[in-house]
């Protein structure tokens, strides 16, 4: 498909600066309505992208990604890396975010949360050969430490408050955070050559990235190759777009449990000891029994080797024929191929204390996927002078085949009797028809409609049909006679869209084990074989917007209102143990509405100097409107702090309401018996911000350039579970060890764990300096053949927040001890010949 509608576009020159390893950090904070939340600070880690707080409760809420016209499968190709990490940001020319239903409906039900259109770089006809090289070297460090007691402070507390346990203290002063964190180094190199060889524009690039994590033993390597050829014949009536991306990624994954372990482990104990557990100090009972639930943090890192290798091959051949007798009409055929092979290995040292009573020390997981797209479409872009109008038309069909194989094992290398494994393989095919019609009258009145109908070829009942249809209108007021003399107004256009989307993220998961409700009881299920009883999730999207330009477009921007109403949202129902696997019920309804604003202002634009400012802001209201027969739904035990409640935002916290005395000090509670310190369990707060925003600026004077991005969010909370776990001194029980605590213990004085207390629900509003860069254009070197630029950048320099944890950005709102985002300083070099 070829779509020219790109209202919000970010060029490569405007990507975020510094050591940027993948697409998500390159665009974070650059689009109104799109919230990008890093999955942590580990190198190669992915990020959660959500448009306008999403349209599903348990489904995918990220925009559909389209790369050079190819729809990227939402299926994850890695256990740990980003789904886009195989694509080198240096190979990207521009990224566009489509949000209007009349544009996104062309891509199907999966585009209910918008479409992220990525265009990669290519050569241009007539260009001379050009060689470019850029390198970025970086140093990363921990921005903020967890607020726990030092060894001397810990000794004093134990001797003062638990003198009968001071015999458990050691004689060492160990800072466990110093032991697990380090200074990380990174280096990115990119080299590309582009130009045109006769009628064949080309671009070839190679890239290499090496990055150490600030958590010991974590690291990331990536090697990329990208080739793009665009030959043409018959005076450019027949053109080809041939592209290839080949990537190999290698991740060294640290056991992130070491982070909360470092907050808890006794700081008076040594790091190493003369024992049979690899020489790492280990808590033991007098009878020699290993206390493997209190593990040496450094042992977790150095006695485990977690490696993942991912090989990705992506390519396409797009043939375009412009008809000789009707040049406005083009016939297109595209063949696209994507193959990914992931190989995960976890090797646990046999003498690691934490597995002293477990036979498993070797875990593998192999994941292979192959996706083939075969697409044919026509595109018409025809002016109709007699009617003072213009007609655009797209119509086509796409067949997609996905093959997936997954193999996993758990065993003891020396004892295969304990080996166990799971294998899974599936082939999934779908066929979609799509079309788009646009009509412009008198160059100011526009009407556009689009649709897509996707059928699952694996389902005879066609139960997984996904559909989208939308229509939009626009009016360019600036071209009306009554604004002809309004010189202050350069551009003024209003638009309105409405669209309907239906989808299922992963149809295969509803096919293996399917259950249906027994008549009269929607939550009593019986097995019915392979028949599918779930509905597609449905979303009705409405939007109204204004685009403007003032003072000869020195000030440009958009203002918009949106409203999304989703129904038949799938909710996993967990039956009693032994009665079956997780079952899904189409029950939920969700309403999301809000306002968006984007503005760009050119403060100075003259020879030798410029200054530009940009701002985006989004305000969202999110409410769960129905759960069918339910009023409250509690998440799994792993997310015990979250729930769904009708009338509340999606994903509120499910905590015990902490009671306080007259002096504002939390009252001690008996956690298991739910009395004294707690009043009741109720929904409170939300992990979804109602406001997020950014402010950016770029400027230059002569050879100097400076740019920065600040971004933030407000109106949401984070449950600081790492603090809740460490809010007390584990010293009043008959254990054989004592544990450190968070400094908040001095305020609460808790004598038992309060793991679900609302006391640890904290305001997570923040303002972050994403990056600040200063650059200098050295100019021409070597006889004016080489153009050289240098820059220095700081990323994540500071975060202004009331949150007491290490980082207020937590993807699901529960901070268990997240891998913190580091502060990074980098030096960049760019050479162009």
Question: What this model shows, in words?
Answer:
The structure is a single chain. This protein has 833 residues and is mostly beta strands. It has a single domain (9-142, 181-257, 295-422, 431-651, 686-720, 769-832), classed as TonB-dependent receptor, beta-barrel domain (Maltoporin, Chain A). The strands form six sheets. The chain has a 22-stranded antiparallel barrel. β32 (691-701) and β33 form a beta hairpin. The radius of gyration is 29 Å and the shape is globular. Mean pLDDT is 88; it is low at 1-7 and 508-532. This is SusC/RagA family TonB-linked outer membrane protein. Keywords: Cell outer membrane, Membrane, Transmembrane, Transmembrane beta strand, Transport. Belongs to the TonB-dependent receptor family.
Overall number of structural domains: 1
Radius of gyration: 29 Å
Number of strands: 39
Which structural class is indicated by helix and strand composition?
mainly beta
- Helix content class: under 10%
The largest pleated sheet is described as: 22 strands, antiparallel, barrel
CATH class term: Mainly Beta
For the record, the CATH architecture stands as Beta Barrel
The CATH homologous superfamily is called TonB-dependent receptor, beta-barrel domain
Alpha-carbon distance between the two ends: 35 Å
Q: What is the average of the pLDDT values?
A: 88
CATH domain fold name: Maltoporin, Chain A
List unreliable stretches of 5+ residues. Answer: 1-7, 508-532
């Amino acid at each position: 498909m070829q779509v020219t509608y790109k209202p919000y576009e970010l060029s490569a020159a405007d990507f975020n600066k510094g050591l940027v390893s993948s697409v998500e950090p390159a665009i974070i904070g650059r689009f109104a309505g799109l919230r990008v939340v890093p999955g942590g600070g580990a190198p190669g880690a992915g990020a959660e992208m959500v448009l306008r707080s999403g349209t599903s409760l348990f489904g995918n809420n990220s925009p559909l990604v389209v790369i050079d016209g190819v729809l990227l499968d939402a299926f994850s190709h890695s256990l740990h890396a980003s789904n886009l990490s195989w694509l080198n940001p240096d190979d990207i020319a521009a990224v566009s975010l489509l949000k209007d239903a009349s544009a996104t409906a062309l891509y199907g039900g999966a585009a209910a949360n918008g479409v992220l259109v990525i265009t990669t770089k290519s050569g241009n006809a007539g260009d001379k050969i050009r060689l470019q090289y850029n390198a970025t070297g970086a140093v990363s460090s921990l921005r903020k430490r967890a607020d726990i007691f030092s060894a001397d402070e810990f000794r004093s507390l134990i001797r003062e408050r638990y003198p009968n346990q001071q015999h458990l203290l050691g004689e060492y002063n160990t800072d466990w955070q110093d032991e697990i964190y380090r200074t990380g180094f990174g280096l990115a190199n990119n080299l590309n050559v582009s130009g045109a060889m006769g009628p064949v524009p080309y671009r070839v690039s190679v890239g290499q990235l090496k990055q150490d994590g600030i958590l010991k033993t974590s690291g990331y390597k990536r090697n990329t190759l990208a080739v793009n050829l665009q030959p043409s014949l018959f005076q450019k009536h027949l053109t080809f777009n041939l592209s290839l991306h080949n990537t190999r990624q290698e991740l060294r994954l640290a056991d992130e449990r070491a982070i909360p372990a470092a907050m808890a482990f006794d700081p008076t104990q040594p790091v190493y000891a003369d024992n049979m557990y690899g020489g790492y100090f280990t808590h033991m009972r007098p009878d020699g029994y290993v206390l493997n639930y209190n593990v040496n943090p450094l042992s977790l890192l150095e006695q485990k080797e977690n490696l993942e290798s991912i090989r990705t091959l992506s390519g396409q051949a797009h043939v375009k024929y412009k008809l000789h007798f009707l040049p406005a009409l083009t016939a297109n055929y595209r063949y696209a191929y994507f193959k990914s092979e992931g190989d995960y290995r976890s090797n646990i040292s046999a003498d690691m204390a934490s597995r002293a009573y477990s036979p498993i020390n070797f875990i593998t997981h192999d994941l292979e996927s192959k996706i083939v797209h075969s697409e044919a479409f026509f595109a018409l872009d025809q002016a109709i002078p007699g009617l003072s109008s213009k007609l655009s038309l797209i119509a086509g069909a796409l067949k997609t085949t996905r093959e997936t194989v997954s193999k996993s094992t758990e065993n003891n290398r020396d004892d295969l009797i304990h080996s166990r494994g799971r294998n899974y393989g599936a082939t999934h095919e779908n066929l979609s028809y799509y079309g788009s019609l646009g009509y412009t009258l008198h160059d100011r009145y526009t009407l556009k409609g689009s649709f897509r109908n996707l059928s699952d070829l694996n389902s005879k009942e066609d139960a997984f049909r996904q559909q989208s249809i939308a229509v939009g209108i626009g009016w360019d007021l600036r071209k009306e006679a009554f604004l002809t003399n309004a010189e202050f107004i350069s551009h003024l256009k209003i638009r309105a869209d409405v669209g309907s989307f239906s989808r299922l993220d992963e149809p295969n998961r509803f096919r293996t084990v399917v259950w249906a409700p027994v008549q009269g009881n929607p939550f009593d299920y019986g097995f019915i074989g392979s028949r599918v009883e779930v509905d597609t999730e449905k979303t009705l999207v409405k939007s109204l917007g204004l685009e403007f330009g003032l003072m000869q477009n020195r000030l440009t921007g958009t203002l918009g209102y949106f409203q999304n109403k989703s129904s038949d949202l799938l909710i996993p129902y967990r039956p009693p143990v032994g009665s079956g696997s997780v079952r899904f019920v189409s029950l939920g309804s969700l309403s999301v509405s809000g306002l968006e604003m984007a503005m760009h202002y050119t403060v100075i634009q003259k020879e030798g100097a410029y200054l530009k400012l940009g701002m985006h802001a989004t305000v969202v209201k999110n409410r769960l409107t129905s759960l069918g027969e339910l009023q409250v739904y509690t998440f799994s035990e792993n997310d015990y702090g979250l729930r769904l409640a009708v009338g509340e935002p999606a994903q509120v916290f499910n905590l015990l309401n902490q009671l306080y005395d007259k002096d504002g000090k939390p009252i001690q509670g008996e956690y298991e018996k739910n009395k004294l310190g707690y009043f009741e369990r109720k929904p409170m707060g939300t992990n979804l911000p109602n406001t997020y925003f950014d402010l950016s600026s770029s400027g230059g004077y002569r050879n100097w350039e400076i740019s920065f991005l600040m971004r933030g969010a407000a109106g949401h909370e984070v449950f600081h579970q790492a603090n809740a776990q460490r809010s007390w001194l584990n010293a009043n029980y008959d254990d054989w060890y004592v544990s450190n605590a968070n400094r908040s213990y001095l305020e609460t004085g808790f004598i038992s764990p309060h793991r679900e207390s609302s006391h640890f629900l904290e305001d997570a509003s923040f303002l972050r300096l994403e990056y600040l860069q200063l650059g200098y254009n050295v100019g021409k070197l070597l006889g004016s053949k080489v153009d050289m630029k240098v820059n220095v950048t700081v990323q994540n320099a500071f975060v202004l927040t009331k949150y007491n944890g290490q980082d207020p950005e937590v993807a699901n709102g529960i901070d268990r001890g997240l891998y913190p985002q580091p502060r990074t300083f980098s030096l960049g070099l760019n050479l162009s010949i």
